[in-house]
Amino acid sequence: NLFPLVRRYSKQKARSRVQSTTNGGKALDRAFSFLCWVIKREKGIVARFSHKVLKTATQNVRNML
Fold first, then answer.
1. DSSP class of 49
2. Which pLDDT band holds residue 59 (cuts at 50, 70, 90)?
3. pTM
């Protein structure tokens, strides 16, 4: 009687598919979190750079007046 073995095998395959999908989802979550962190960090660097440039430009204009 092979039917119970086939059913058990198909349940195991279904579990492994779900686990595989879950692991893929975790990997995507990590990648997305890392990407958000990089973008946030780069925005901070750009903001600091922009502030520095604006401050320098303002000082230059004041010196011209």
1. H
2. confident
3. 0.43
Q: What 3-state DSSP class applies to 1?
A: coil
Q: What is the pLDDT of residues 23-46, one digit of tens each?
A: 667 778 888 888 888 888 888 777
Q: Is 65 helix (H, G, I), strand (E, B) or coil?
A: coil
Q: What are phi and psi of 2, to 5 degrees?
A: -90, -15
Closest CA to 38 of 49, 30, 48, 26: 30
Q: How many whole angstroms separate alpha carbon 39 and alpha carbon 33?
A: 10
Closest among 50, 47, 27 to 39, alpha carbons compared: 47
Which residue is associated with the tokens 């086939």?
Answer: 6
